[in-house]
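Hi F.,

I've been meaning to write this up properly since the lab meeting, where we talked about keeping a consistent format for the predictions we share between groups. The idea is simple: the sequence comes first, exactly as it goes in, then the C-alpha cells exactly as they come out, then a line or two of notes. No screenshots and no reformatting. I'm using this chain as the first example so we have something concrete to point to.
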Amino acid sequence: MGGLYSPESWSRIIAGLQDDSTLLTVEGDGHAVVSSGASPCVDEIATAYLIDLALPESELSCTL
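Output, unedited:
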C-alpha cells in the first residue's frame, strides 16, 4: 500500500497528528480513487463524509 510520493507511513503520521481524524487506506495501486468507480467501498465512505460529514468509527481499509 502507498505510493511513491505518498507512502502509507506518511499518511499514518498526519492522521496521528489530528485527534478527530480517520484514516482510510486502499489496498492496490493508484491515485484519485474517489468517484473513479475503482472501489465502491471508497466511494461509499467518501460520499457519506462529503454529503453528511459522517466519519467511520475506526480506521478502514478498502481494496481496488
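Notes:
DSSP finds two helices and two strands in the chain.
The beta strands are 24-27, 60-63.

If this format works for you, I'll send the rest the same way.

G.
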